[in-house]
Amino acid sequence: MNDPKTSYQLKFPDLSAEDIKAGINGIIGREILLYETVDSTNTLASELAEEGVTEGTVVVADRQVSGRGRLGRSWVSPSGVNVYMSIVLRPDMKPKDATLLTIMASVGCTTALRRATDLDITIKWPNDLVVSEKKLGGILIETRVASERIEYAITGIGINVNMDSDVLPDVVKEVATSIKMETGRVFSRTEIIKEVLNEINDWYNVLKEKRHSELLSCWKQLTSTLGRNVEIVLDNETLQGLAESITDEGMLIVRLPSGASRVVHYGDLRLLR
Ligand code: BTN
Q1: Is there a single domain that holds both residue 201 and residue 253?
Q2: Cross-strand bridge partners of residue 143
Q3: How far is the CA of 194 from the centre of ligand 1 (A)?
Q4: Does pTM top 0.90 for this prediction?
């Protein structure tokens, strides 16, 4: 593999750091570091955050060899087709509020992708971008905490853009889709990234200005989770119940069959029929 630190002056037919930067409105994406192949954009962005890169720096890769998903899963990351990127954020937040970053990024991605593609994309709590009941993208937030504050939060975003189903392993084929598979059209990754970063910039400002209710109410309009019966696999148990609402910190409130309610911080959620 090339040394990822020296290979960012790159251009792909539909992916260019210069063209992304030219369309950026705020601090997020003012610095774009584009690589051909990395282990994981989240890992590289963490290293760069440790070295002190400014807030809003975005690491983008054409391909990942060890792309990571939530709950220790891997993220299929072939070259030439999808978006893999990680934003370095330095929010003034307590670690307990980190879920709001997932809420913020999922609202930003979904709003931008709906506008760009006309697809009826929804958010499955906590971090899935879903269309036709299949996964179109996901968000992986990784934080570094010091003295009870978030020092930096790496916001990793994977979006299946022009991928065909034949590159997917059989188990993933059943549950994943791409913008191309849904629309029959090929999209420019540069355009998708610009739209997503600008929208995330706007929602990040909403979060920084503590306009949480605006963010949560937009999330509620975009989610396919609330009002549904769900199953959630936690570390030591599996819950079933009605997904009723989310808390001000972005945690899911589930009404159990007993009538009691339970606040869930994280887990693997499945929508039941
Ligand atoms: C999930 O749904 O499980 C989260 C998937 C997040 C994938 C992205 S791709 C860019 C960034 N780098 C990674 O290794 N993971 C995230």
Answers
A1: no
A2: 153
A3: 18
A4: yes
Write out the chain's pLDDT in tens, 273 residues. Answer: 445 544 556 779 999 999 999 999 999 999 999 999 999 999 999 999 999 999 999 999 999 999 999 988 999 999 999 999 999 999 999 999 999 999 999 999 999 999 999 999 999 999 999 999 999 999 999 999 999 999 999 999 999 999 999 988 888 889 999 999 999 999 999 999 999 999 999 999 999 999 999 999 999 999 999 999 999 999 999 999 999 999 999 999 999 999 999 999 988 999 998
DSSP 176: B
Please give the residue range of the domain that contains residue 10: 4-222
Distance 263 CA to ligand 1 centre (A): 25
Ligand 1 centroid–CA 138 distance in Å is 6
Number of domains in the chain: 2
Atom of ligand 1 nearest to the CA of 70: 3
Same domain for 169 and 250? no
Q: Ligand 1: which residues within 6 Å by Cβ?
A: 40-42, 64, 67-70, 73, 75, 84-86, 127-128, 138-140, 156-158
Residues 237 and 185 in one domain: no
Which whole-number Å values give the CA distances from 2 to 11, 35, 38, 76, 235, in the listed order?
15, 9, 8, 20, 38
User: Can you read off the two tokens belonging to residue 102?
Assistant: 């997932």
Q: How far is CA 129 from CA 23, 107, 132, 196, 219, in A?
A: 24, 9, 10, 13, 12
Residues 233, 173, single domain; the answer is no
- Pick the residue whose CA is nearest to atom 15 on ligand 1: 68
Looking at the CA of residue 64, tell me the nearest atom of ligand 1: 14
**Do 217 and 236 sit in the same domain of this protein?**
no
